[in-house]
Amino acid sequence: MPLSIQQELALLRANYGIHYAGMAIDGRLDAEYRARIALDSQPGMITTNNAGIPFFLANLIDPEVIRVLVTPMQAEAIAGGGMKKGDWTTMTEQFKVTESTGQMATYGDYSTAGQAKTNTNWVTRESYHAQTITQWGEREISMYGLAQIDAVSEINIASALTIEKFLNKSFFYGISSLQNYGLLNDPSLPSAITPVIKAATGTSWSVATGDEVFADIQKLFAQLVSQARGYVNRKTQLVLALSPESEAYFTKTNQYGINISDLIKKNFPNMRVETAVEYDTDSGELVQMFAENLEGIRTVVPGFTERMRAHPVIAGLSSWQQKKSAGTWGTVIRRPFAVAQMLGV
User: Fold this and answer.
1) 126-135 pLDDT, tens digit each
2) Cα separation of 288 and 217, whole Å?
């Protein structure tokens, strides 16, 4: 049979010398001991109120890294891709532009009248090279590691993004003080035409009807056809480039419930629409339309000497550095007449 509490206490006292002060033989606290321990009660707490545990013990760090977004880099998507030309030692590039000339004369067996020749011009562009530096410290990356962040990878991602943003901007605007121009500011570009005046007054698509928005696209296409002198028609591969804000108005419908996007697909089957925030200019909303290529020659070509050159990693006492560089030609517009512009939509 199991021992009672009284028997167990007696055995502890007899065999091991273990005594429970104030404990009666029946296992309850005697009255004198209960009165004595009651004197421990205090009118207030000595310790400070708290939540019970340090807050970081209940904190979770999400393993997914959320990077801050930058505006999309659309220059090459609009132009149909970039092209490498030369390398980081190449300073200038010359384009051969040839023109056929000739004249006919009345035939005669012994006549030498009439001739055909070719005339060549050379167009020059200058390259521009830029750099950025990445650096990281031994303690720095260890401390980032406490938060499960691969600091070296994140720094290298930042350097690649910085270079891509630089190239994208140069493809749109070129480099000042050099013969290096962009898709939006090449001096050879034709002047921008003005949109149709809307019934609600003004030229903005924000107040235009669906028919009025499409009328502007038709006017821009007519301008391109006029400039190209027969090299552009509705079957030509075309690009329509504008800002995302302007492209949003393609959801407007005409009186028959057909929206602008459907009208473009029907009337210009080989046209692709591209957007970039750079078309929202200080002078107003710009729209460009151009032929992708004529007789196998691309109309606009973003160019670079080096997409990214990663130089050697240099070790310090407790840190590392690396230089990365890139070079750009801006955007070369080979046939400016194949580009039409409209400003103020």
Assistant:
1) 999 999 999 9
2) 10
